[in-house]
Each structure stands twice: as structure tokens, then as C-alpha cells.
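This section describes the prediction task in plain terms. A model, or a person checking by hand, is given the sequence of a single protein chain and must write out its three-dimensional structure as a string of C-alpha cells. No templates, partner chains or ligands are provided. The sample shown here is typical of the held-out split.
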Amino acid sequence: MKSAYELAMSRLEQSEPSRLLTEEQKAAIAEIDSEYDAKVAEKKIFLESEITKLHGDPLAAESLRKQLASELASIEEKREKRKQAVRES
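The expected answer:
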């Protein structure tokens, strides 16, 4: 007897068959991940150092934390768009 997860996955496979990625696509996706991991690290280091400089101002620190979260979400969105473009090529 199949679990609900297995049934859902088999239905999904029927409606949208998975495509195998070529080695070039895998390499391109790995390169995109590497590039965007570096961007994420750069933003975190910069904004977290700015936050530590504001140890006396919690409102400004909170503002920078929100900015960091927003920028990280934007970076992740761009990463996924580029990866999807590679998958579709």
C-alpha cells in the first residue's frame, strides 16, 4: 500500500514528467549556486558588521535586519529564476 506522499508523487509525475538534467545544466546550476552563495555571504557580512556598529540604536539595527532579509529574499528569487532558465534550456 502506498503512502499519501507516494501517491501524490506518482500523480505529479504523470501530470509533469521530470526531466533529467544534462551534465552542462548541472554544472551551470552549480555555478549559479556558487555565485549566489557568495552574494549572500557578502550581504550578510556587510550588513551584520553595520548592525554591530549600531549597538546603541535598536531601531536602526532592526531596520538593517529588515533590509538584510529583503535583500536575501531578492537574491534567492534571482537565483531561482536563473536556475529555472537553465532547467528549461
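For orientation: DSSP finds three helices and no strands in the chain.
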